[in-house]
Amino acid sequence: MCLAIPMQITVIDGFVAQASAKGVTREVSLFLLQDDMPMAGDYVMVHVGYAIQTISAVEAQNAWDIYDEMLSVESSAPHA
User: Fold this and answer.
1) pLDDT in tens for each of the 80 residues of the chain?
2) pTM of the entire structure?
3) According to the CATH classification, is domain 5-76 in 2.30.30.140?
4) For residues 16 and 34, is the Cβ–Cβ distance under 8 A?
5) In the chain, what are the domain boundaries?
6) Rounded to an integer, what distance in angstroms lies between the CA atom of residue 20 and that of residue 35?
7) Sign of the CA dihedral with 59 first, then 65, 69, and 70 last
């Protein structure tokens, strides 16, 4: 299973951006989005260091709500 993380772009320098989510900042490649470059403040889905899709703030929040719910179910499940 592949997982992409929603992150908000804070700074762009060419095809490299600083993006953050939940207090974590990462360097993200924008190379795959060069035909429709996002701007600082935009949200993107990040997979293995590459922004693969621009999304809305609502879509980013919905994704985090789902991830948080999955983590809460996992942490409350009995372990064998």
Assistant:
1) 688 999 999 999 999 999 999 999 999 999 999 999 999 999 999 999 999 999 999 999 999 999 999 888 877 767 66
2) 0.87
3) yes
4) no
5) 5-76
6) 22
7) positive
Amino acid at 22: K
Residues in the chain: 80
Tell whether the torsion through CA atoms of 23, 26, 32 and 36 is positive or negative: positive
Give residue 1's pLDDT. Answer: 66
67 burial type by CB count under 10 A (0-12 exposed, 13-18 middle, 19+ buried) = middle
Report the alpha-carbon distance of residue 36 to residue 32 in Å, rounded. 9
Q: How far is CA 18 from CA 39, 49, 60, 70, 72, in A?
A: 11, 11, 17, 27, 28
In whole angstroms, what is the distance from residue 21 CA to residue 44 CA? 10
